[in-house]
Amino acid sequence: MEKNDFTSGAILPKLLKFMLPVLFAMFLQSLYGAVDLLVVGRFSDNAAVSAVSTGSQIIMTLTNILVSFSMGITVAVGQKIGQKRPKDAARTIGTGLVIFAAAGLLLTVISVIGAEVLAKIMNAPAEAFDVTAGYIRICGAGFLIITAYNLLGSIFRGLGDSKTPLIAVGIACIFNIIGDLFFVAVLHLGANGAALATVLAQLISVLISLIIIRRTKLPFEFHRSDIRMNNVCAKAIFRIGTPIALQDLLVGVSFLVMLAIVNKIGLTASAGVGVAEKVCAFIMLVPAAFMQSMSAFVAQNYGAGKADRAKQALKTGIAVSFVFGFMMFLLTFFRGDLLAGIFSGDREAVMNAWDYLKAYAIDCLLTCFLFCFIGYYNGIQKTTFVMIQGICGAFCIRIPVAFIMQHFGGGSLFLIGLATPCSTIIQITMCFAVYAYLSRKRSSE
To answer: Rg for the chain (alpha carbons), in Å?
Structure first.
């Protein structure tokens, strides 16, 4: 396994070398989710599209809790590597495996037993209610698999290896495409078929990834005896990961509230926003990849006592991702119908998606700042602030603005969608304020 030392050498080449596999893995992950909607949109009806849209948003929110919490492992392991303490890194990984096995079981119970309740909370349209609940239940039954799938990636990114997660998601993507075509296009199982394809593809990916890992040399010795609850390591994981997970959970809830608002408008609007969300997963790829990469890069340098190098990495990441964000703004705002048309053949759903995407196009100009800042603050263990700014943006701005636009915006999806860039502006302002405060504090010491 290739391990990257981020504490020396030119920043941009090392950052890009690590980020590009992360970006490609996230592209495949987005493609992985998009294929479900694409195939269902082509071989089923708007009810199935709405079900996949709503159901996948719920599953993604629950999954993001795991992914966000696993950032505690990524950062803790990265810092141990930066501090040249490989045995502690092994103990951290072993403790993480125990914690996430329990978390996966809990989420399985919640999503399987509470599928109908979750669909009802989301105001799933009547025509798509049963299908939505079925999609949630099938995906939820595979949460242990989903947990293992995402945990493996976070561990190896903490070790400075972004290529093994890329292999894992590539395997999953290939088998998901095959599964979608078989279950949806051939067997005509609709949204349930897409859910089956998702779970089975991730199971195959996990099994193959474990085989690869067993044949790969780690930068330290890892034994079965390391797979146990170590109180010191657990405290570090919870201290770093809990604020991130709580923030992402509440931010995810805010987006679920927005989707519930749209679901009340009608089936076509629900399908349109579902299509738009899949497009958003692609147009936000570069800043999202920098956020993940920044956490690992900054964590190593912070652990090695190189604060100035961590700051320079932040500025470099913002500059590179802004260029891409500007291009995505132009494409999405002026020709979002072309992007939405990839996922749906229904003209009305496509136009609804484009209307919503115009708001996200504006957000493309802003997330290059926000996502890089979040990665930076995660890397220096300021995860409580990350939680605070996320909650403020979600509950003080995004949800209130969405409700106001619903009541006074005439049902315009563009106006409802503006809640997102409004929230991002406030969050960026908070990030700059804390950055300036920390800089002044450090210069006075």
So the answer is: 21
The alpha helices in 44-162, defined as continuous H runs, are 46-69, 71-82, 86-113, 115-121, 129-141, 143-158
* CA angle (282, 284, 287) in 5-degree steps: 135
Q: Which of 162, 159, 158 is nearest to 17 (CA)?
A: 162
Q: Amino acid identity, residue 262? A: V
Phi, psi angles (nearest 5°) of residue 320: -70, -45
Spatial distance between the Cα atoms of 123 and 51, rounded to a whole number of angstroms: 11
pLDDT, tens only, 221-264: 666 777 788 888 888 788 877 777 777 777 778 877 887 888 77
Phi first, then psi: what are they for 4, rounded to 5°?
-100, 130
Q: Would you say 13 and 159 are in contact if contact means Cβ atoms under 8 Å apart?
A: no
Cα(289)–Cα(286) distance, integer angstroms: 5
Those residues with Cβ within 8 angstroms of residue 121's Cβ, 6 or more apart along the chain or in another chain: 256, 260
Residue carrying the six token digits 């690869």:
212
Distances 439 to 43, 241, 443 between C-alpha atoms, Å = 55, 24, 6
- pLDDT tens-digit profile of 187-201? 888 888 888 988 898
DSSP class of residue 395?
I
Give the whole-angstrom CA distance, residue 421 versus residue 373. Answer: 16
Q: Is the pTM of this model over 0.85?
A: no
Tracing tokens 């999405």 back to the chain, one arrives at 332
**pLDDT confidence of residue 363:** 93
Q: Which two three-digit tokens encode residue 323?
A: 């260029």
Q: The tokens 């199982």 sit on which residue? A: 189
Q: Give the helix ranges, DSSP H, for 159-284.
A: 163-180, 190-214, 231-265, 267-283
Comparing C-alpha atoms, which of 72, 152, 56, 148 is closest to residue 111? 56
Q: Is residue 397 within 8 Å of 422, Cβ to Cβ?
A: yes
Look up tokens 């779970």; give the residue.
199
d(CA 77, CA 72): 8
pLDDT reported for residue 395 = 86
Task: HSE, CB side, 13 Å, CA atoms: give it for residue 391.
Answer: 12
Which residue type is seen at 185?
A
Distance CA 75, CA 426 (A): 26
Q: How far apart are CA 245 and CA 65, in angstroms?
A: 5
Tokens standing for residue 100: 């996430």
